[in-house]
Amino acid sequence: MLDVNAIDTYRGPAHILNGVSLRVDKEEVVCLVGRNGAGKTTTIESIMGFLPVRAGQILFDDEDVTRLPPHERAKRGIGYSPEDCGVFPDLSVSENLMISRWLGDEVAKRRNGGQRVDPEAQTFSLFPEVQNLLQRQGLHLSGGQRKMVAIARAMMLSPSLLLLDEAFEGLAPVVVNRFTEAVMKIKAMGVSILMAESNLGAATRIGDRLYAIDRGEIIFHGSPREALADEKVMKALRG
Fold first, then answer.
1. Residue 25 CB: number of other CB atoms within 10 A?
2. What residues form DSSP beta bridges with 2?
3. Which fold has domain 2-238?
4. What would the pLDDT profile of 176-190 be if each residue is shown by its tens digit?
5. Full-prediction pTM beyond 0.85?
6. In Å, what is the CA distance from 151 to each residue of 154, 165, 237?
7. Phi, psi of 150 (to 5 degrees)
């Protein structure tokens, strides 16, 4: 589904990613773990096209998307929920969702001639709470509600790959459990997921495979059990 091959990415003059490679297979949850500043968000933003890569290649569904702008990657079925949620504060929740609902029609045309599962029904089955927020402005949402809306908006695209950047950050444990259930439901819908996550415990509960990143380089790839037993990974996450 996704192949990231030896990418280098800069933020201004700073060389952040150095030869990062990872893959996500169909109907798989892959977690990219690392402490703050390790390169997780830069990796996600490189895949989505917000940051240009200086070297390497990004393949999505066997297509080279390395030089495509973000909206073209979205049209190919890559959904994105950013770390800061990216909810438009002056728009209602309904209007925020409609942006991806409209773009999802383009995804469906490319994929199967326009036919698609009802995105509203699919999305609200994940987060029924969002239906009660449709007329509320983004400005007036709590942190947990913004994260719900950000994921719901990405799912309105009917993506085949979902990028989640720190979806659990700042959430109470009971809310983390709620989001974990939603991620597993998304996987059951046949959507592949790449999650950037600082919390190793949360990542090991839901990830089929894990990559650990430190100082812009992948230092580990394996199963959640192997990650927990790897002293190098644990030391990197502790900083």
1. 12
2. 24, 60
3. Rossmann fold (3.40.50)
4. 888 888 989 999 999
5. yes
6. 5, 10, 26
7. -65, -45
